[in-house]
């Protein structure tokens, strides 16, 4: 893939990711389940936990942080902190946050947007990992012991 096509694909995935998060926020609520205090408590807790995970991971990346899955030229491979638990903890955090918004939203559109977000982030993580494997000699060993989005799940062997 040419660098221009890689960049276009990367930013397309970023745009889809943010569009799906926006859908989860703005779509009117539904009635798939009762939207009561417990629903808002569980959904709100998931939103907060997801946001905390994503922020901690973003801080952990430091100057290597970018919304694009294309690694920055000067970036070092980060394998410590939350990255010792999951290779893509920002994506994990966004999925937990999105799950909270889907719980609060209680509509088929919310569930569909969350599933689409999951698929998008899986595609984005695999796209990113191809570049990380090319760039960092240590990435293959790291990916063999650390799960993709959830600790222990999705290790590359």
From TrEMBL:
It is found in: Endomembrane system. GO terms for cellular component: endomembrane system. It is a multi-pass membrane protein. InterPro entries: Metal_cation-efflux_comp, Phopholipid_MeTrfase. Keywords: Membrane, Transmembrane, Transmembrane helix. Coiled coil: none annotated. It holds the Pfam family PEMT. PANTHER family: BLL3993 PROTEIN (PTHR43847:SF1). This is Isoprenylcysteine carboxylmethyltransferase family protein. It comes from Microcella pacifica.
């Amino acid at each position: 893939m040419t660098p221009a096509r890689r960049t276009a694909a990367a930013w397309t995935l970023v745009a889809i990711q943010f569009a799906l998060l926006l859908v989860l926020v703005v779509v009117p609520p539904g009635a798939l389940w009762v939207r009561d205090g417990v629903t808002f408590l569980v959904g709100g807790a998931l939103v907060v936990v997801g946001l905390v995970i994503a922020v901690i991971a973003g801080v952990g990346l430091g100057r290597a942080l970018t919304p694009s899955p294309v690694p920055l030229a000067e970036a070092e491979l980060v394998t410590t902190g939350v990255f010792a638990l999951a290779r893509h903890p920002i994506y994990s955090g966004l999925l937990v946050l999105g799950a909270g918004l889907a719980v609060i939203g209680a509509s088929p559109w919310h569930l569909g947007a969350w599933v689409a977000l999951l698929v998008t982030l899986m595609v984005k993580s695999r796209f990113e990992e191809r570049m990380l494997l090319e760039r960092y000699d240590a990435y293959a060993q790291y990916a063999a012991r650390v799960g993709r989005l959830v600790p222990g799940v999705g290790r590359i062997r």
